[in-house]
């Protein structure tokens, strides 16, 4: 319990400090390291031994994150980012469809596709949310994920009866999911008030997006783990499992968060 508490506190404090300091090099390096570790864990889950996904991740991250930050200019990257976003959302929607299948098909080509457009690009969009919009918005997204997970667990444990996806995650309930969404909406008011970034209406909509797609991301990773017949994606965080276990929700939600921010940026 002590190790679990210490590793959890260290993870949360690290994210809060790096994103609060608003230093581009800090959060870009942090998510790069998180991405490498998560990619290592995910490759083990899907039994992909090739090192090509590391090369793809480094190239994507260098082009969309480091290049943009170093040159302080989009330099035509907006159109390319939109293509990456469309492909990522498309692959993620297929993974949602796979939740209803008996098994996620993992032929070789698909393993490369999901390591690229589910995991690697997920980290790219995390860094882009912080660098293109605001680190405070990304920190608010993490807080909403934590609120959703915590209250989904508490409400589900005390009031849950109807299973959400019993074959994938037996402990998740419909009541817990709705409780997580409800308290995320409440948290969005305080984030809007304190952060001075987006107005309450946008944070409210963002809280629903994060709660829904964050939950789906958690379920998808749970299904990968069930197919691999493992409890955790790794052991890097004592008492919590792997880093991917902690980041699965926000990784999956990140392209949808980025899409929403692009839309409101366009209409405003």
Description:
With 268 residues, the protein is mostly helical. Helix content is 79%, strand content 3%. It is built from nine helices and two strands, in the order ααααααββααα. It has helices at 2-21, 24-45, 52-71, 77-98, 108-133, 135-159, 174-195, 200-228, 243-267, and strands at 163-165, 169-173. It has a two-stranded antiparallel sheet with strand order 1-2. A hairpin with a 3-residue loop joins β1 and β2. α4 (77-98) crosses α5 and α6 (135-159) runs antiparallel to α7 (174-195). The mean pLDDT is 90.
What's the short story on this structure?
The protein has 268 residues and is mainly alpha-helical. Helices cover 79% and strands 3% of the residues.
Largest sheet: 2 strands, antiparallel
Gap between N and C termini: 47 Å
As a percent range, the share of helical residues equals over 70%
What is the number of helices? 9
Structural class: mainly alpha
Taking pLDDT < 50 over at least 5 consecutive residues as the criterion, the unreliable ranges are: none
| Order of strands, widest sheet | 1-2
Order of helices and strands: HHHHHHEEHHH
Beta strands, count: 2
Shape: globular
Q: How large is the share of residues in beta strands? A: under 5%
Average pLDDT rating: 90
What's the assembly state of these chains? single chain
Radius of gyration: 18 Å
Keywords, separated by commas or semicolons:
globular; mainly alpha; 268 residues
Describe the SSE topology.
Blueprint: H1 2-21, H2 24-45, H3 52-71, H4 77-98, H5 108-133, H6 135-159, E1 163-165, E2 169-173, H7 174-195, H8 200-228, H9 243-267
Antiparallel strand pairs: 1-2
Helix pairs in contact: 1-6, 2-3, 2-5, 3-5, 4-5, 4-9, 5-6, 5-9, 6-7, 6-8, 7-8, 8-9
């Amino acid at each position: 319990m002590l190790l679990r508490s210490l590793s959890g506190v260290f993870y949360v404090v690290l994210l809060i400090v790096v994103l609060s300091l608003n230093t581009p090099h800090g959060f870009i390096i942090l998510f790069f390291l998180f991405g490498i570790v998560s990619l290592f864990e995910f490759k083990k889950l899907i039994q992909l031994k090739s090192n090509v996904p590391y090369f793809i991740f480094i190239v994507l991250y260098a082009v969309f994150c480091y290049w943009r930050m170093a040159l302080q200019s989009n330099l035509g990257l907006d159109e390319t980012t939109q293509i990456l976003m469309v492909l990522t959302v498309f692959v993620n929607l297929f993974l949602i469809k796979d939740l209803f299948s008996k098994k996620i098909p993992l032929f070789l080509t698909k393993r490369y596709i999901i390591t690229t457009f589910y995991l690697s690009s997920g980290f790219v969009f995390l860094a882009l949310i912080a660098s293109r919009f605001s680190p405070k918005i990304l920190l608010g997204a993490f807080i909403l994920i934590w609120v959703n997970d915590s209250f989904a667990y508490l409400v589900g444990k005390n009031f849950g009866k109807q299973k959400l996806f019993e074959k994938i995650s037996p402990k998740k309930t419909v009541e817990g999911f709705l409780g997580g969404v409800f308290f995320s909406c409440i948290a969005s008011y305080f984030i809007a008030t304190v952060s001075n970034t987006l107005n309450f209406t946008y944070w409210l909509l963002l809280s629903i997006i994060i709660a829904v797609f964050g939950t789906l991301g958690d379920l998808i990773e749970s299904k990968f783990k069930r197919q691999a017949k493992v409890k955790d994606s790794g052991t890097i965080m004592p008492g919590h499992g792997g880093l991917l276990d902690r980041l699965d929700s926000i990784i999956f939600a990140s392209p949808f968060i980025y899409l929403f921010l692009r839309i409101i940026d366009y209409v405003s």
